[in-house]
Amino acid sequence: MASAIALFYYHLLVFVITLLVPAIAQVNTNVSVGSALFATDDNSTRTSPSGDFSFGFRHLPGQQDQFLLAIWFAKITEKTIVWSANGRYPAERESKVELNTAGQLVLIAPSGWESWRSSNNENPQVSNGAMLDTGNFVIKSKNSSIIWNSFDEPTNTMLPTQVLGFARSLLSTMSEKSFGMGKFQLRFRQQNISNSSYDLILNQIAVYTKNTYGAYYTEHNVSELIMDKSGYLLVKNSLGAISNLSSEGEVLRTESDSYYRATLDFDGKHYMI
């Protein structure tokens, strides 16, 4: 078991980022129905109440006219991106994302081309979108139920309190500067059709054909991968029992306020910070 856990942590490592800046006094948290954020140099964002996370457009590295619709750590110098909507299709300048009356975020180019739309299978009356202190962006109905949330559509990163279930996966980016789909995947694989047991696996993907290769890491009988509030990775099995994949020494603890994230990097390593 020890060697299996070590192998997993070689590919999924925890990063700890110490917060040294003061809290933001006042932030704009919500997105109202019919409102939009624009991809410009001085674009508006929506920030969580604590100021820890922001949602909006970010310049792609080295690209002044290409933008990523993303969520990032707002208080740290690196502004590390933890979620993105349009890695494969960067948005051009003056693109916009708006919350429509159907409860969907829609990313629209100046030409009118729609490159991304969030899902909404329930279609209740929408209230607003909001950036939460957990790093989760949610769309709420008028009865306060969650219509859609970014935690349910992860890209390459997990945050504390986030749960990865059998229908979800993490995909690496192509590189540090390119946020298109890379060649590494963390996902669930059903053991056999006759039961509901799943394996949590890491595998490579053929970037152009999307074909998957055999697993190079497997954790058997896993129904959920959980990142808890303290930055530890836990797995829940089909009987509901929870095991800790990490030991005390594998997640750095500090007395200062810290951020944690688990990222499947472009090189196939799963970093936890």
Automatic annotation (TrEMBL):
Pfam families: B_lectin. One of its GO terms (molecular function) is kinase activity. Residues 1-25 form the signal peptide. InterPro entries: Bulb-type_lectin_dom, Bulb-type_lectin_dom_sf, G-type_lectin_kinases/EP1-like. CDD domains: B_lectin. Residues 36-152 form the Bulb-type lectin domain. Keywords: Disulfide bond, Glycoprotein, Signal. The keyword Signal applies. Transmembrane segments: none annotated. This is G-type lectin s-receptor-like serine/threonine-protein kinase lecrk3. It comes from Quercus suber.
